[in-house]
């Protein structure tokens, strides 16, 4: 965990914040301002907001009547990645808690390192691991133009976020992606947004067998019990995590008090820009303290250009 004041106080604080996110995959920041859109202000210290087409630069996570997205209900959200139907899946997601009143029963956030889960699958069932690295799953968000006919569109006055508009986003990729050295660089897991499996017939049964094996590891195994972080976000706390590495979930909740509310705001950042900012600050750190010469830094892995030298 880090404190908001430490992050904004100095370049060193910003570097440490990025180091947590890049190296560990998750950082929870405490004592952030409890004001709307402050998640954007903090994220913008790193880079411009990305992936704003569907949900806007800042999106609200609240329970509402007649929701068209399970995130906007009080139901349980199982472990998943966000926006898997993009060709360029968001690298980092920030979720800022504005309210989580005492009258809210349940609703704990959950986080799981999917790289560790994938490695566990690799060690315990190499055949299933190979299948999930090779066979592409289909992820989609397809919504017809008449799904919400009374919703205003951009430029047409007040209305709901663009997530309620017509969209056709489809991407295919294996659940587990490796770099040229065989290292795990991305895990994409989002059952609610899976489309029809479009693979050769002989891959269908092995795929679903491997799928069930991995799902058991992350949801119901001894590994899941030991490695899942359960945390009730408090107002002013911000969860920052690598969306290609850390799966997130939410327990079901209910309002015991009619005035109680659970309200989070979120945003996304591009992984290339986060990594670039981190490496620039890291190089400055090396030059200041002389701890390394810049050539001994380990390689870093990311989707897109796979594995490249850090500097």
Automatic annotation (TrEMBL):
UniProt-listed GO biological process terms: carnitine biosynthetic process
Pfam families, A to Z: TauD
Domain TauD/TfdA-like per the UniProt entry, residue ranges: 9-268
Keywords noted in UniProt: Dioxygenase, Iron, Metal-binding, Oxidoreductase
Origin superkingdom: Eukaryota
Keyword Magnesium part of the UniProt annotation: no
GO molecular function: dioxygenase activity; metal ion binding
Transport recorded as keyword: no
Annotated SUPFAM superfamilies: Clavaminate synthase-like (SSF51197)
A GO cellular-component term linked to this record: mitochondrion
Cofactor (UniProt): Fe(2+)
PANTHER family, per database record: GAMMA-BUTYROBETAINE HYDROXYLASE-RELATED, OXIDOREDUCTASE AIM17-RELATED
Family to which the UniProt record says this protein belongs: Belongs to the gamma-BBH/TMLD family.
Protein name, per record: TauD/TfdA-like domain-containing protein
């Amino acid at each position: 965990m880090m404190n908001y004041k430490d992050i904004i106080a100095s370049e060193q604080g910003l570097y440490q914040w990025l180091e947590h996110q890049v190296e560990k995959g998750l950082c929870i920041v405490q004592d952030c301002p409890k004001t709307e859109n402050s998640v954007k202000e903090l994220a913008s210290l790193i880079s411009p907001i990305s992936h704003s087409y569907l949900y806007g630069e800042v999106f609200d996570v609240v329970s509402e009547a007649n929701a068209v997205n399970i995130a906007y209900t009080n139901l349980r959200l199982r472990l998943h990645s966000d926006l898997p139907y993009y060709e360029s899946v968001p690298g980092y997601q920030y979720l800022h808690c504005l309210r989580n009143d005492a009258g809210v029963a349940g609703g704990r956030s959950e986080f799981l390192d999917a790289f560790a889960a994938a490695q566990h699958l690799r060690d315990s069932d190499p055949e299933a691991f190979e299948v999930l690295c090779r066979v592409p799953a289909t992820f989609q968000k397809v919504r017809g133009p008449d799904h919400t006919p009374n919703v205003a569109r951009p430029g047409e006055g007040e209305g709901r976020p663009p997530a309620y508009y017509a969209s056709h986003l489809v991407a295919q990729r294996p659940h587990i992606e490796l770099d040229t050295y065989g290292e795990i660089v991305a895990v994409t897991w989002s059952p609610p947004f899976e489309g029809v499996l479009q693979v050769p017939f002989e891959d269908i049964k092995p795929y679903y067998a491997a799928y069930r094996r991995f799902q058991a590891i992350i949801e119901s195994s001894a590994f899941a019990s030991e490695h899942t972080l359960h945390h009730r976000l408090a107002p002013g706390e911000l969860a920052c995590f690598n969306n290609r590495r850390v799966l997130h979930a939410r327990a079901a909740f209910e309002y015991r008090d009619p005035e109680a509310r659970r309200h989070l705001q979120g945003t996304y950042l591009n992984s290339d820009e986060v990594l670039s900012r981190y490496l620039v600050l890291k190089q400055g750190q090396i030059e200041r303290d002389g701890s390394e010469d810049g050539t001994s830094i380990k390689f870093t892995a990311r989707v897109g250009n796979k594995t490249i030298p850090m500097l």
